[in-house]
Amino acid sequence: MDDIYKTRKTLLFKIKDQYNDDAWAEFSEVYKHYIYAIIRGMKITAADADDIVQKIMMRLWKKLPEMSYDEQKSFRAFLAVVTKNEVLRFIEHRKRQMKRDQNAYDTDDGDYLSTIRLPEIEQIAQKEWEIYLTNRAFENLAKDYDTKAIEGFKMCLKGIGVGEVARLIGVEEKMVYNLRFRMKERFSKEIAKLRQDLE
Known about the structure:
Elements: H1 8-14, H2 21-41, H3 46-63, H4 75-100, H5 108-114, H6 121-141, H7 147-157, H8 162-169, H9 173-198
Helix pairs in contact: 2-3, 2-6, 3-4, 4-6, 6-9, 7-8, 7-9, 8-9
């Protein structure tokens, strides 16, 4: 399990070399979807979100190799700030474009910009991070448990009763109890490991 993820410290050290393609591919795989989810949570369209993610990744490619590593700071919080700043740049750029076109706030774009919820960035980032960690933890569990077991455990997490879960996945109730106990402990460990490695 220790080999599944490089620690945040190790990965950040490796990407100090801007031309370490493997390290940057790993960095992108770990954090890109989280950044995208924050942007979409701010009501940015999918097309614009893709463009903003690319700008953020380029900005990080330039900036991260120069940064010193600080054990006490949350890298996730740093990413949320960088994302917020890039979205602000996007909004300001779009507003300037609209003014140049003499259509400020009278177009669909004006309505679109007004729906972006910048003050809630911290809540959006926190919510998306929890979803992201949960999904990554389930990806790890899928390496050791079959699909039926994973689906059964997800049902248990949603509060569905043991009897109903057993009926839906076609096993005895005793198996659901055992599965729930074993997977709950493993799931908690996966989440803790991901927090340690990625935040």
